[in-house]
Write a structure and sequence with these properties.
mainly alpha, elongated, 115 residues
């Protein structure tokens, strides 16, 4: 799978990220680095512990990574979860986390299918 096909498979906007990174090889290199990013696992752990501070930090980090890499499929749910947690509340966080989790796994699946 090419990097453009990968972005299409995850539901992200490849043309947007191409305007920022200029070269498909650079996009591929940085996108594959996401496979080692720990922010989603940190978010999952913090949600399980009901630690709103750590969950916020992890969600905020995940949001930033998504913005930088152009993961426009994952970014909206990460932004929404970040804002819920910013209020130091878990009201609605579980439902929003489920959306983040769904898009995260879709993103990982697409990245794992890269050539």
């Amino acid at each position: 799978m090419t990097i453009e096909e990968c972005y299409t498979a995850m539901g992200a906007n490849y043309q947007d990220v191409l305007r920022r990174f200029y070269k498909p090889d650079m996009i591929r290199r940085f996108a594959r680095m996401f496979l080692q990013d720990t922010s989603f696992q940190q978010l999952t752990d913090a949600m399980a512990r009901q630690d709103v501070k750590d969950a916020f930090l992890a969600a905020h980090t995940l949001k930033g990574v998504c913005l930088n890499l152009g993961f426009s499929n994952l970014m909206p749910s990460a932004v929404a979860l970040t804002e819920i947690l910013r209020a130091e509340s878990f009201d609605g966080a579980a439902e929003q986390y489920a959306l983040v989790e769904k898009e995260y796994h879709k993103t990982i699946e697409a990245l794992n299918a890269l050539d």
